[in-house]
Design goal:
Blueprint: H1 2-32, H2 48-57, E1 64-68, H3 74-81, E2 85-90, H4 93-105, E3 112-116, E4 129-133, H5 139-149, E5 155-159, E6 170-172, E7 179-183, H6 188-197
Length: 203
């Protein structure tokens, strides 16, 4: 009998521990592994230096701001504290819910919004300030998408990895904390648009 009781307890303990591990895995996995995207974006939190460098590139800017792949919301929250109407798009629902909690905790929930969405299915046409924490594989396609959608007065800020074709107007930071800022009005596409709408002068 004692042997069978011990066997039963052993099975219960094993089942309990196994269930706990499965639950923890289900909760933690979205934070540490890439979500299902066209290009995988692993969640790597922005450093304090990166946040400060982004804010530096936003000096003298205003209006709406979007963080593409907003993670745990720290860039969005920091921008909201500087007066921006800041929005984050993130495919990982756990991170979005956590971002909303952090915004509420920091008292900026009225100036922030977080959406669970695939960045490739969203139009960013109405944003003047765009922050991107990308990976090299996605930058060429994202460069094309933003050039097609954004107005000429937009500024795009890339963190960790620059865009492949655009030449940055401003750069700050070192190593992984480097931030590149691109003013879209200096791109060839915007120059072409400006020429097309400029009335001809009579000679």
């Amino acid at each position: 009998k004692d042997g069978s009781r011990r066997s039963s307890w052993g099975l219960l303990v094993t089942a309990g521990v196994g269930g706990t591990l499965v639950a923890l895995y289900a909760v933690a996995t979205p934070f540490v592994t890439p979500a299902l995207r066209k290009v995988c974006l692993p969640f790597v939190p922005a450093t304090a230096a990166q946040i400060q460098n982004v804010l530096k590139m936003l000096e003298n800017r205003s209006g709406s701001l979007v963080d593409i792949g907003s993670g745990d919301g720290r860039i969005v929250i920091a921008a909201a504290k500087k007066g921006f109407q800041a929005v984050g798009y993130e495919l990982n629902p756990w991170l979005v819910w956590y971002s909303r909690y952090r915004a509420w905790r920091d008292g900026v929930h009225q100036n922030t919004k977080f959406y669970i969405s695939d960045l490739w299915k969203v139009s960013f046409s109405h944003y003047r300030n765009v922050v991107v924490f990308g990976v090299p594989q996605m930058m060429p396609q994202l460069e094309k998408k933003l050039e097609e959608e954004l107005e000429c007065n937009a500024r795009i800020i890339a963190c960790r990895f620059p865009f492949p074709c655009w030449i940055p107007d401003h750069t700050t930071g070192e190593g992984i904390d480097t931030v590149w800022a691109y003013d879209l009005k200096h791109s060839r596409a915007c120059e072409t648009k400006s020429l097309e709408i400029t009335p001809e002068t009579k000679s």
